[in-house]
Specification:
mainly beta, Tachylectin-2, Chain A, 5-stranded antiparallel beta sheet, 3 helices, 21 strands, 42% strand, binds beta-L-arabinofuranose, xylan degradation, carbohydrate metabolism, polysaccharide degradation, Glyco_hydro_43, Glycosyl_Hydrlase_43_Enz
Amino acid sequence: MKQTKIIFLLFTIIAVKIQGQEKEISYPYTWTTETNPIVKHIYACDPSAKVFKDGTIWVFASHDADTATGYWSMKDYHTFSTKDLKTWTDHGVALSVDDISWATSHLWAPDACERNGKYYMYVPANHKIGVFVSDKPEGPYKDALGKPLVPIDNAIDPMVFIDDDNQAYLYFSRKGEDCFVVKLKENMTEIDGVIHELTNWSIRSTIDGDYNFVEGPFVHKYKNTYYMTYPAKLYKQGAKGNKEGDEVICYATSNSPMGPFEYKGIVANESGVHTIHQSVIKLKNDYYFFYHNGALAEKNGHSEYNKFRRSMCVNKLIHNKDGSLKLVEQKEAIFD
Ligand code: FUB
């Protein structure tokens, strides 16, 4: 009887692995690539890339399960590092839902930063935002407060931006509606002052056919201008030849990190997976735009669930001479 149970258990594990196309990987896991999607061994999505002080690029990413049929099954985050966007290391799980006492699922788009020798991850779980701390960029990260940091429900997609004067700002979205910013104290685990709403008319209803702010604000600074890129959905059927519900990346600019931000245009078209989520880094003299698509799921032969099995990509971001952003060419070759 015992033997039958063991055989049954083994068979179940093997079946799950084949169905989910999981591979046995031991971490840290290193590979080289010059083609998108960057990560081909798991579905890594919502890539939030940052360049830390020693010049290493770290990407903090959500993780779609191999068998995902919705966004609720996202249960951990991986960290990835590279110096040149060619040789990559996946450091494995940096933070799991098991380490968050106040959440059970929905580990959505994270971000992170480096401050005073420590590393801070800002994470939305069950639509609440918490802060997690580690001595190493790859983690493991521990809950700094034991409760959410942001006192707003339905808050998702946190992003931390540290300005040249060292003031830190936390941006986030309230699902599908509004964008907010609040200063963070030097300790990075307390908000400092009033939470400001940034969703003015300009980014709520744009001149490109009613693309409205949805989520995922990400701020970078270029020549003293603050650029906020953000996923926005088309609400008006057929405007500019796009389909209702398409999510693209728009951008708005400001001369202050506290806004107001003024809508400027679309920087990336939809990527075929219902959501798109972006981040921007500067590497040497070039800027790069991270996002996700469904290319890996397509290659793996999945079908209607590809939009829940996303894979991270990167291509160049060009600032035009007049300060506008060129539409990102979403292509397989990372470098031209
Ligand atoms: O990955 C789950 C959610 O989908 C993220 O929080 C959003 O930005 C979108 O990518």
